[in-house]
Amino acid sequence: MIDDSADPRPLDRIDRRILAELQADGRLTNVELSRRVHLSPTPCLERVRRLERAGFIRGYRAELDPEKLGRALLVYIEVSLDRTDEMVFETFKAAIRQQPDVLECHMVAGGFDYLVKARLADMTAYRRFLGDCLVSLPGVRSTHTYVVMEEVKTDARLPV
């Protein structure tokens, strides 16, 4: 089998179209995808597999409705650490990765250390999450929370 992970070929117009179509609907059959990108099914499938092996396509998943699943509250939390050493970073990252309420966590440059995006049932659940998880972690100096009042645009699709 050929290792395409370091494939030096740039993405061409068809590759980009495949990526865009799969971002819009990851459940497309290969036949439908090939029709949309104007390729026959076999070369289309070969391109999709190459894009997967090369890491352009990291996976496929369903988009769920948070409100129907009891996760209507969306919050962003700035987290500042009391010191910035490797042990504190690793402890924080390990703890955050174990939290099912956390959707995203990013180390950032600027006035705080991490930006956490979390989905919870309500303010009571958030308060419990804040007290039981975030502020109890070693090294956490302070947090600032921003509660989302309205989601204006939610789209994880990348421009291709």
Automatic annotation (TrEMBL):
<feature type="domain" description="HTH asnC-type">
    <location>
        <begin position="11"/>
        <end position="72"/>
    </location>
</feature>
<keyword id="KW-0805">Transcription regulation</keyword>
<dbReference type="Pfam" id="PF01037">
    <property type="entry name" value="AsnC_trans_reg"/>
</dbReference>
<protein>
    <submittedName>
        <fullName>AsnC family transcriptional regulator</fullName>
    </submittedName>
</protein>
<dbReference type="Pfam" id="PF13412">
    <property type="entry name" value="HTH_24"/>
</dbReference>
<keyword id="KW-0804">Transcription</keyword>
<dbReference type="InterPro" id="IPR011008">
    <property type="entry name" value="Dimeric_a/b-barrel"/>
</dbReference>
<dbReference type="InterPro" id="IPR019887">
    <property type="entry name" value="Tscrpt_reg_AsnC/Lrp_C"/>
</dbReference>
<dbReference type="InterPro" id="IPR000485">
    <property type="entry name" value="AsnC-type_HTH_dom"/>
</dbReference>
<dbReference type="InterPro" id="IPR011991">
    <property type="entry name" value="ArsR-like_HTH"/>
</dbReference>
<dbReference type="InterPro" id="IPR036390">
    <property type="entry name" value="WH_DNA-bd_sf"/>
</dbReference>
<keyword id="KW-0010">Activator</keyword>
<keyword id="KW-0238">DNA-binding</keyword>
<dbReference type="InterPro" id="IPR036388">
    <property type="entry name" value="WH-like_DNA-bd_sf"/>
</dbReference>
<dbReference type="InterPro" id="IPR019888">
    <property type="entry name" value="Tscrpt_reg_AsnC-like"/>
</dbReference>
